[in-house]
Amino acid sequence: MSGEVSGFKKADSIRQFIFPKDHFAHNEYRTEWWYFTGNLFTQEGRRFGYQFTIFRNGILPGSESDSVVISQNSLYSIHIGISDIQNQKFYSYERYARALDGLAGSDETAKRIYIEGNEILFDFSNGAELPGFHVNSSTDDFKISFNLVPEKKMVLHGDKGLSKKSNKPGNASYYYSFTKLNTGGELTLQGEKFKLNGSSWMDREWSTSALESDQKGWDWFALQMEDGTELMYLRLRDSTGSTNFQKGTFIQMDGSYDVFTGNDFKITPLKNAEIDGIKYPVEWEIKIIPLNFVFGVSVAMKNQVHPFRLRYYEGAINAFRKSGNEISKGVGYVELTGYGD
């Protein structure tokens, strides 16, 4: 997304998060999403990656006090991706609906975010700051029904949840995550049912920010390591493919975390692959210089591109981390936007 936006609020200062309210829609901001990814396995070890994201986009700004009108000015969409690693096959699904007539919306009373037959249900039995989630969807190619339980506390990225995307004031989002969600449930893929278990990652973000004129797209990584640590790393690229802005969060085994920015990181793409005539990086080295950590990251399968009008790569990855003589393996997800534009 690029260009100036007026009439909507901007994420321009640190805020006090209020739960459960902040788990639901912020109609006074232009854009927000509820984003889940995960790597899940059958008992025999067959691996599937998944993405489940519901987006809300404000069509017209309105008065915050006129909650009904402003909520109806929202367009909801959902993107789902299923990566069948064994068969090297990617399934992609997209749907749009206005927040009218019960087709889509955010319902704090029902503890639900939904668009047509797809939904996120919140479970606050362990408190509003440590919710469980039920993710359900049914499409022509697949059905999913997953239960997700957080193993760690919420992570506030950036400056207490204010996550800058450039050095320009207001070009930021409010951004928090649950980086380790114990996940179980069922995937039905073209009529075949799989019982799955594994780990998921949840991102929650809202803003009225846009890409700067010198920003072409971004590379986002979520890594979950076997030693119980996680990494979120984001870099925005300029038109030459060089790093324009970067930041990240490293989460320790006990849930404590450290935020890193700028020269704390060095990323080196090592290998590209051509998919439908567009070159995407598919292997990287990421260094966190203050921690003396080196991560090796590669995609779990080549083609994980959503063939939507706004194409982007969203896929399962493999990872390892070197620190001295110690090596930890892991899995995760990568999102790549702006390639081929």
Write the layout of secondary structure elements.
Elements: E1 31-41, E2 47-58, H1 67-72, E3 74-84, E4 89-98, E5 104-107, E6 112-115, E7 118-123, E8 132-138, E9 142-150, E10 155-156, E11 162-164, E12 172-189, E13 192-207, E14 217-225, E15 230-237, E16 243-251, E17 257-261, E18 265-275, E19 278-288, E20 293-299, E21 305-306, E22 312-323, E23 326-337
Antiparallel strand pairs: 1-2, 1-13, 2-3, 3-4, 5-6, 6-7, 7-8, 8-9, 9-12, 10-12, 11-12, 12-13, 14-15, 14-23, 15-16, 16-17, 18-19, 19-20, 20-22, 21-22, 22-23
In terms of quaternary structure, what is this? single chain
Gross CATH architecture of the largest domain: Beta Barrel
The total number of structural domains is 2
Largest sheet: 13 strands, antiparallel
Low-confidence stretches: none
Task: Supply the CATH class of the largest domain.
Answer: Mainly Beta
Round the Cα radius of gyration to an integer and report it: 19 Å
* Structural class category: mainly beta
CATH homologous superfamily title of the largest domain: AttH-like domain
Number of helices: 1
* Terminal Cα span: 12 Å
Which descriptors apply to this entry?
ten-stranded antiparallel β-sheet; 13-stranded antiparallel β-sheet; AttH-like fold; globular; 58% strand; 341 residues
Descriptive overview:
The chain contains one helix and 23 strands. The mean pLDDT is 94. The chain starts with 30 loop residues before the first strand and ends with a strand. A hairpin with a 2-residue loop joins strand 18 (265-275) and strand 19 (278-288). With 341 residues, the protein is mainly β. The chain folds into two domains: 19-210, AttH-like domain (AttH-like fold, Beta Barrel), CATH 2.40.370.10; 211-341, AttH-like domain (AttH-like fold). It is globular, with a radius of gyration of 19 Å. The strands form two sheets. Strands 1, 2, 3, 4, 5, 6, 7, 8, 9, 10, 11, 12 and 13 form a 13-stranded antiparallel β-sheet that branches. Strands 14, 15, 16, 17, 18, 19, 20, 21, 22 and 23 form a ten-stranded antiparallel β-sheet that branches.
